[in-house]
Every structure is written in structure tokens, then in C-alpha cells.
Protein: Chondroitin AC/alginate lyase
Organism: Roridomyces roridus
Amino acid sequence: MSYGSAYDPLQSNHRHQVYGNEDPAFNQSTGFITPARHAKKGTSNWIKFGIPVAVLVIAAAVVGGIVGSRHHSSSSASSSSGDSSAAAAAAASSASAKLSQGIFVEATNSFYMIPVYPSVTDTALFGTPTLNAASKTWPTDTFAPAAPAATSVRPDRPRLIAPQYKWDALPALIASDPYMASWNESIFSNASQYDALPAVKYFMDGDSGILDVARQVKQRVKAFGYVYRMTNDTHWVDRTWEELQNAAGNGTVSWGPDEDRWNSAHFLDTAELSAAYGLAYDWMYDMWTPEQKSMIISTLNLYGLGPGVQAYTNASDFNGWWKNNIQGNWNCVCNNGLTMASLAILGDDPSGNAQQLLGLTVDNANQNCVFAVSDDGTWSETADYWYFGSTGLAEMASSLMTATGSNYNLLKTNPDLAKTGLFHIYGTGATSLFNWGDNGPNKYTATANSLIFYGDQFDQPQYALFQRDHPWNMFWYNQQSSGGWWDGLALDHTFTNFTDQWMSMRSSFTDANALYVGVKAGTLQGHQTHNDLDVGDFVLDAMGTRWAGELGDGDYLSPGYFSNDEQNSQRWMYYRKMTEGQNTILIGATNQDVTAKPTINFDSSNTTQTASTEFTPPSDSTAFFTTDMTSAYFNATSVKRGIRLLNGRKQVLLQDEITASASVQWRMHTNATVTTSGTSATLALDGKKMDVSLLNAPDGATFSTSDAVRLPTDVTPPEADQPNPGVTVLLITLPAGTYNLQVLFSPEWNDGSTPVTPPSVPLDSWTLTSHSS
Ligand SMILES: *[C@@H]1O[C@H](CO)[C@@H](O)[C@H](O)[C@H]1NC(C)=O
Ligand SMILES: *[C@@H]1O[C@H](CO)[C@@H](O)[C@H](O)[C@H]1NC(C)=O
Ligand SMILES: *[C@@H]1O[C@H](CO)[C@@H](O)[C@H](O)[C@H]1NC(C)=O
Ligand SMILES: *[C@@H]1O[C@H](CO)[C@@H](O)[C@H](O)[C@H]1NC(C)=O
Ligand SMILES: *[C@@H]1O[C@H](CO)[C@@H](O)[C@H](O)[C@H]1NC(C)=O
Ligand SMILES: *[C@@H]1O[C@H](CO)[C@@H](O)[C@H](O)[C@H]1NC(C)=O
Ligand SMILES: *[C@@H]1O[C@H](CO)[C@@H](O)[C@H](O)[C@H]1NC(C)=O
Ligand SMILES: *[C@@H]1O[C@H](CO)[C@@H](O)[C@H](O)[C@H]1NC(C)=O
Ligand SMILES: *[C@@H]1O[C@H](CO)[C@@H](O)[C@H](O)[C@H]1NC(C)=O
């Protein structure tokens, strides 16, 4: 499929074939990098082309941006907000600082839109991250009820996320802020693209339902609604109507079965379509005829809110399983969709569904959704589901705030919710996410956009500055955030909750070539069946390439894929989910024990990055993470793993101490071409090389390789595994015994640095200085 050709959801619905975040238009008007379809080993492509382009964009912004905009920014800030002149001056200076920085381009053909940072040593440009609370971006909302209630809505429209006073302020904000200008541009451009396509086609994707198409409808409604409100061009109202009618089964092509067009058995779909209907109803309220309004409401009640009431109130209706103690993305997304739709039609709804649901969804989300974040900020379902769940929660809180004047403690009930930005920041490596468990590319309406909202709500400028993409920013963005989000931020962070226990270590936040290690232990149950059997798993980035990586999710439609997380679950028969498919130790060719309770130890030199995007850590800067993962294994009396950075964060040592009564295998998955010779291996990828050596090798221990496929002794899963083309497993295979395996990774940096050979130190004696020469 080529760019610019019509995007056909029927052709490309499966998550592994769709990269919804790739926006062919993004580059046309803004000079963003030309995206290329993600190839098998494509992550590094953008790095080769990306940096020169990034510098150009920054330079262009510096030259083109400042001129003629300063006056606008100061006058708009003072006239639209009525703030004091000091605040207006602060706003102007923040805006001009940002104009002189320009915008960070994104690597649009990487899976996760990793930003590309310019090489800038002028630290004045990227100082301490700040949110200037004294001069808020937005004028003050005059709707501020003394006793807010979820069923008592603001008098004017729109109610959802973007009240009229925000639309009124937008033109001046867009004129004074390069980010807002680029987002505005990109929403217009997206809307034109969607406009040229036929209405979203119904496609039932087995167990994944119609979620992808539901999210496409929501995405289109958002874009069309935005452009309508910015232009008053009724074309966009008509085009929205076409999508609404189509998703009601009233279009020219069919949409699902009469009795359940929004697929309530997979309630996420119902919820996302409800949200889309709610947004359309609310944002274009004045344009709908009375007849259209009643058609929207009747369809919404029939396929969305009616099933929502059933899910909540009918004990024999199982479509609402997600409301019963499910602390994960389902709860957030389902409650959000029902909430947005109910807020939109409240007062016009003859059925009473909206009123009834608003009495249920908010409490339920407060008991469940908000606790998907554990006490260290980790989203317990994996990094991928953080996108969906945190977006759902942010949309819900934001909609309630604008429509009713409160979020009813959704952002406070779990005091650790405020840490969830750290989960995303530290889980983002130099080239990709630390994407353990089920993970695919992020797409459609589930994005990291909510960080902008959380950054503002939790007064965390780092979050707001870290994430700079996507449509809700037009209403969530606090323009007064400025500085480099990395300035003063610790390079390492450990997430210690027993559920995930993971650590992130790196040499720089702003260098795409940086060294990055993500490593995890954690429990293997209680992740909404989205995890792998992966205690001890790690990823490794260096020189712009991922050297040790994840295989991501399997086929969600495979029989038994989501059966359960018991030891004998069919899920654990699939290569990508079983222990063999992870970068860890395999004992007795058998999966890890799902009841594992690993313990961890760690330390860090606590090195923080400075304002400069060019940052070299001191030579004694280091970090390590060790885990006693014995409880994850059968037929082993002791299994410990440790990983640490060496040589000023230029090398990595991975050490395993094992006593096992069954065979032992050390496994690592790589896209590199691997050459082995006894106790050394050379990995070659994207024109770069990594030397791997086994130090103090036990008798008989050498490197070998295999394809990334199940061992012949494994049981055959119900459906064939997905192939892992281009992936090689680097192996050390040994009989039962006691071993100390020390594997040293030495990237060939070609920067004049000399690799070191560390001493042999037992894991229990590792300290920050145990390996210094
Ligand atoms: C434009 O569309 C792309 C791809 O569908 C999406 O990732 C991006 O967020 C959209 N941008 C805006 C500003 O809506
Ligand atoms: C938003 O982008 C559109 C399309 O490029 C442009 O016509 C419009 O003027 C922009 N809006 C503002 C307020 O700059
Ligand atoms: C759209 O119409 C409203 C109400 O008539 C008006 O206030 C606003 O200025 C118009 N916007 C544009 C972009 O024409
Ligand atoms: C779709 O058609 C049905 C049956 O005529 C009608 O009840 C419903 O209101 C329509 N909905 C929309 C959005 O067109
Ligand atoms: C409750 O749900 C069951 C199963 O879907 C359905 O058969 C029944 O009619 C529902 N009861 C009511 C009162 O709606
Ligand atoms: C870990 O987080 C969970 C929520 O996911 C929480 O229930 C638990 O108390 C936390 N554990 C510890 C040790 O704090
Ligand atoms: C191989 O490259 C792809 C694309 O960049 C990446 O998603 C995957 O994690 C890599 N696999 C391994 C085993 O490193
Ligand atoms: C690093 O910070 C952690 C957490 O604040 C602390 O426990 C540890 O002692 C610090 N280590 C050093 C070497 O400063
Ligand atoms: C442990 O090893 C014994 C002897 O080799 C074998 O029979 C048994 O299946 C192994 N247990 C597991 C869970 O792998």
C-alpha cells in the first residue's frame, strides 16, 4: 500500500498491518519527515534521515517563527484572559522562547513516534521545565458551579472538553505558538484526507470486534468537528452526518446486525462509538435539525447507552464484565464512552439512560479505572494498554470538568496516578518503547496525548513537555510550559511495585544513539492477561538501533490467546508469550512458574541530565538492577540475574548465576545478523556493530544461534505461531549444573572510547563501585 492512496480499513484492519499513527499529510505542509511504511527492521531508518531534517525544521522555525508573532502573543494573552500585564509578559516570553526553539519533529516511521531532538548546547533554550501557573493559557471558565454534580451540565455548548471560550481563544493561541500552529495544520490536513475517503466501513475482526473501525469513526468526528468549528463550513457537518448515518446502518452500505450494530459483546466498540456520537452531537449542536438530533439520540440509546444500562443493571448481561473489579483499560474506555455520550445528550434524552449512567460510571471508574496505575506509576497491563487506558481516563475527567465543573476525584482517588507520566517517559527508550507483553503500534485515538492533560492537572511540566502530538492538545495544552523536559531529570528510574519491578537506564534522553536498557522482573499474573512469562527480560538500544528486542503481541484471534493466566493456559503455548520467546533464562525447556514472586535490588549514581541536548555522563556514572528469580523456575534451586552499565554508560554487563537440575538456556532475540565464534559473537545491524563476549566462560559454554521458533519438544499450540522474520536468537545452551554466565555487550561506538573488561563480582556483592577499575 502506498501513501496518499485511500486508506482502506477493510484491507488493513489487523493491528499488525495497520500503522494508524503514520500520517502521510503530516510532512506536506510542515516539513516533517516523510514517513515510510514501517519495514521489518525499519526503526533505525528515521534516525539516518531524521536528524538532518530535524535541524532544518528547527532552523526554519527560528527564522520564520518569531517575526511578527510576538506582538500577537502578548496582546492575545492579555485580551483573551484578562490577566495582569505581568502575566501577559510572562506568557509572551514563554511563547517567544518556544518560537525560538521551534518544534521537535517526530520520527513518524518509528512505532511510537519517538521525538527527534536537535543538537543544541545553548542551555538557555532548554532550561528547567516550568509551568507558569500565574499566566494560564486559557481564559478562566465562567462556568464554575459551587456544588458540581455529574448530572448537572453547563448552560452553553459545547460541553465536552472544548467549551466555546476555548474555541474563542484558539486563533490567538495558534498565532503565538508553533506547536498549536502545527497541530491545527495537521488536524485540517487529516480532515481533508478523511473527507476524501468513503465512510468508515464495518469490519468485524473476530474477538477484536469492530474496535478499529469504531476508533476511526471517533477520530474522524473529532477532526470534522474541529474544522467545522474553526471555519463554520457546513460541509463538515454534512460529512459528519454521513459517518453517523453509516454507523447507524442507515448509509449506503451495511453496518452490522440490526439488533446490535455497535457490538455490545465487545463493549469497547460500543463505548468508542458512543463517544463519537456524543462528540458529534455536542460540537455541532447548533447545526443539527431537530429531526437529526432525535435520530442521533435514538441511535445512541439503541446501540450505545441502552446496552450500557443493561451492562450496569442486568445481572444476566455479561457485556458489562469490565465494571466488576477490572482495573485496566477496559474499565476506563467503557466508562468514558458512556460518560461522554451521556453528558452530550443529558437534558435532551427522553429515555433517562444518560441520567442513569452518569450516576454509575463516575463511581465505577473511581473504584476501578484509576487503580490500573500501581503505586510506582506503572500501568499494570503493559505499556501498550497505558495508551488506551490513560486516554480514556483523561477524556472522561476532562469531559466531566468542562461539562459539569468537577472530575469527582478521578485524578485524586489513586494518589499514585500522578506518577504515570514517569512510566511512559522511562519506558521510552532511545529507539522504541520497552514494550514487554502485548504491544503493537499505537493508533487511532489511543495516543500518549493524555500526558499533556496530566502534566497540566498534576503540575508536572515534564509530562507536558515530553509529549507534543495529537488532537486533544488543542484544548489540553498549557502554552506556558517551557524548558527542556530532560533538564535535571535522573537518567535512571526503578519501578518497584511487585507487580512489575522494572528499571530504565540510559546514557542520554536526547540522543537517538544513546545506550538504553530496560529490564524487568515482576509477577506473572494479574495483568489482565496481556503479559508474557518474562521475568528477567530486557531490551538494549545503542547507536540508534535496538539490539535486544521484544517480539510484541501475537495474533489476538488465536484460540486461547486470552484464556487465562494459569500455568496450563493456552496463551503460554504461543512462542511470543512463552518464556522461550523472551530475553531471559529458560530452564528445562519449560515455561516460568506463573506464581513467581521475584525480589529485586538496584542502585543508580542518580546522574541527571543537564539542559544541553548534547550530554555525556561522567565516567563513573552507572546503574544496576539484580533480581532473585528462583521462584520463577521449576527444577532450579537458585536463579539470579543482574544487569549493569559500565564505562560511563557505554557498555552493558548481564550476569546470571544459576543452579539447575534441568537444562539451562540463555536466550536473547535480535534483528541483527549474528556471527558466533566460541565465547564471542558479533552482531551487525543497520551498518553498526556490537561485540558480545562471554567472560570467564564455564566449561562447554559457547554462543550459538537459532531461529525464533518453538523448540521441537514443545506442545503444539491451537494455531500456528506468527513468524518472526529476520529475528535470530543468540543462545548459550548448557546441561543441568551450576553456572555463572557473564555476558558483556560492547557497542562499537567508533568515538575513540576504549571498551573495558570488568572484574568478576558475585551478584550479591554488586554495588555502584564494585566494577570500577
Ligand atoms: C492525524 O492523523 C494521524 C493518523 O491517523 C494521527 O496519528 C494524528 O494524531 C492526527 N493528527 C491530528 C492532529 O489529529
Ligand atoms: C489552521 O490551519 C488551517 C489549514 O492550514 C488554516 O487555514 C487556518 O488559518 C489555521 N488556523 C489558524 C487560526 O491559524
Ligand atoms: C462562525 O460563526 C460564529 C457565530 O456566527 C462567529 O462568531 C464566528 O466568528 C464564525 N467563525 C468563523 C471562522 O467564521
Ligand atoms: C437510522 O434509521 C433508523 C430507522 O429509520 C432511525 O430510527 C434512526 O434514528 C436513524 N439514525 C441515524 C443516525 O440516522
Ligand atoms: C437481561 O439480560 C438478559 C441476557 O442478555 C436478557 O435475556 C434479559 O431480557 C435482560 N433483562 C431485562 C430486564 O432487560
Ligand atoms: C502495587 O500496586 C498495586 C496496584 O496495582 C497495589 O494494590 C499494591 O498495594 C502495590 N504494592 C505495594 C507493595 O505497594
Ligand atoms: C526488530 O525490529 C522491529 C522493528 O523495529 C522491532 O519492533 C522489534 O522489536 C525488533 N525485534 C527484536 C527482536 O529486536
Ligand atoms: C540514588 O537515589 C536513590 C533514591 O532516591 C537512593 O536510594 C540512593 O541511595 C541514591 N544513590 C546514590 C548513589 O546517590
Ligand atoms: C523437572 O525435572 C524432572 C526430571 O528431569 C522432569 O521430569 C520434570 O518434568 C521437570 N519439571 C518441570 C516442571 O519441568
Q: What stands out?
A: The two ends are 54 Å apart (CA to CA). Residues 1-88 have pLDDT under 50 and may be disordered.
